[in-house]
Amino acid sequence: MKTNFRLLAAFLFMQFIASPAVSHAQTMLGNPGVRLVEYRNMDGTLIKSGKELGVFGSPMLQDGWGRGTVRFKNGQVLSDTGINFSLYDHKLYVQRNNSFIELIQPVTSFQLSFRNENEQPVMHTFKNGFPAVGDLDENDFYEVLYEGKNLQLLVWLHKKVVEYFVYNGPQQKEYELVQHMYLYRPGENKMIPLDNAWSVKSVRKSLPSYTGDILSYNSSHKIDSKNREQFVELVSYLDRK
User: Which stretches of the chain drop beneath a pLDDT of 70?
Assistant: First the structure.
């Protein structure tokens, strides 16, 4: 579902959108755990997806809509209480009544806040403009987990549709999260891939010159490989070295 489903009719969304081409979609809630994203062509024809295609889960960063701030390349800023980011097509959407609108102006960064299971706000910060690495380029957005002067911790998030088989049942489809982790060195403008694990071993492999500092820090902190917050604290420590 690419830009060929964007409306060609003129639609002026706030004062900052110069182009009349926007993408229109409707969201519907089906069974628990299933979010249906149904696109319509400009003639109103339904483009089947979600439940009709048997895809379970959500393609979005989080369920529901978050409070957010979007910064555009032209310097303008949008703040709204109904924003979400699709990890399937990597596009930003703003909710309006029972529909949502794709933001098609170039974006440099955005922040989204969602409530966790304890009803506490959790902020997610995304930026682009980083150097190309692998199949990713400067237009791809990364979630910034730590932003220091010498080291930054980034993760590229994507949701793909996978198929699996149920015993004595029909084939199923669901969204599966994919993540690629990187350390970014601003002084060298260099992206360093990690082994996609919150572990001391992965950062030692990626930053061999920091081995002594890493071992020293881990001996007194005993980092849990399943604890992302502890890993972020390690990167923060190395950034100050």
Answer: 1-53
Written as six digits, the tokens of 175 are 């969204």
- For residues 192 and 205, is the Cβ–Cβ distance under 8 A? no
Q: Say if residues 218 and 210 touch (Cβ distance below 8 Å).
A: no
Do the Cβ atoms of 232 and 145 come closer than 8 Å? yes
> Which residues have a Cβ under 8 Å from the Cβ of 113 and sit 6 or more positions away?
66, 67, 68, 121, 122, 123, 124
The confidence score (pLDDT) of residue 53 equals: 55
Tokens of 170: 């029909």
Condensed to tens digits (0 to 9), the pLDDT of residues 42-88 reads 444 444 445 445 788 889 999 889 999 999 999 999 999 999 999 99
Percent of the chain with pLDDT over 70: 78
Residue 218: closest CA among 239, 204, 206: 204
Phi and psi, residue 228, nearest 5°? -65, -35
Residue whose C-alpha is closest to residue 132's, from 193, 73, 187: 193
- In the chain the beta strands, taken as DSSP E runs, fall at 6-7, 22-29, 35-40, 46-47, 55-56, 66-72, 77-85, 92-96, 99-102, 107-115, 121-127, 142-147, 152-164, 172-185, 190-193
